[in-house]
Amino acid sequence: MVENEYARFWFENGVLINVLKKPIEVDLEIMTKLIELRHEISNNTYQYWCLDGTKLVSVNKEARDYAEKYGQDFIHTNAMMVNSHVTKFIYNMYVKLKSPGFPFQVFTDREKAIKWLLEIKSKNKKKISS
Questions:
Q1: What is the DSSP string of 23-92?
Q2: Residue in 12, 30, 25 with CA at minimum distance from that of residue 56
Q3: Mind listing the domains of the chain with CATH numbers?
Q4: pLDDT at residue 28 tops 80
Q5: Is 111 exposed, middle or buried (0-12, 13-18, 19+ CB in 10 A)?
Q6: H/E element holding 15?
Q7: Which helix (H) or strand (E) covers residue 93, if one does?
Q8: C-alpha distances in Å from residue 117, one per residue of 12, 63, 106, 122
Q9: Which residue of 21, 34, 76, 113 has the fewest C-beta atoms within 10 A of its own C-beta?
Q10: How far apart are CA 118 and CA 46, in angstroms?
Q11: Contact indicator for 49, 15 with CB cutoff of 8 Å
């Protein structure tokens, strides 16, 4: 497990999990620290990542632009947790407009998110071993 003042990251069943410690408005400085922390635990390897965004209040444009440019390293597949269907709809629309280049899906149920990540991971292992 690694953590800073904003978030905690750890592995569970081969999936990278993270949670924000408190409700947060993400600016460029915070985004930079979050990405650095995820890169640290990823150790230059691609991860199946479950991002808990339930405490994410907002992300300013500078932070979004930085994440689009630098925050996609070492992500194989990403499931994002949100706490409402309205937020889920907004993020899904954003993903359609700004496709991250890897499977990305938004969930309101953590178990479903992790199940989805593990299914993709299992399918990818079967492809590699074939």
A1: -EEE-HHHHHHHHHHHHHHHTTS-EEEEEE-TTEEEE-HHHHHHHHHHTTTTEEEEEEE-S-HHHHHHHH
A2: 25
A3: 2-123 (3.30.750.24)
A4: yes
A5: exposed
A6: strand 15-20
A7: helix 85-97
A8: 12, 25, 11, 9
A9: 21
A10: 14
A11: yes
Least confident of 38-42, 78-82, 96-100, 115-119: 96-100
Contact of 25 with 53, CB cutoff 8 Å: no
Residue type at 35 in one-letter notation: I
Give the angle 100-105-111 at the CA atoms, nearest 5°. Answer: 145
Q: How far is CA 118 from the centre of its chain?
A: 14
Strand, coil or helix: 9: strand
Rounded Cα distance, 24 and 113, in Å: 22
In the numeric block, the tokens 């990278």 are attached to 16
Q: Under a CB-based contact definition with an 8 Å cutoff, are residues 47 and 80 in contact?
A: no
Task: Convert the pLDDT of each residue in 43-78 to its tens digit.
Answer: 989 999 999 999 999 999 999 999 989 999 999 999
Whole-structure pTM value? 0.87
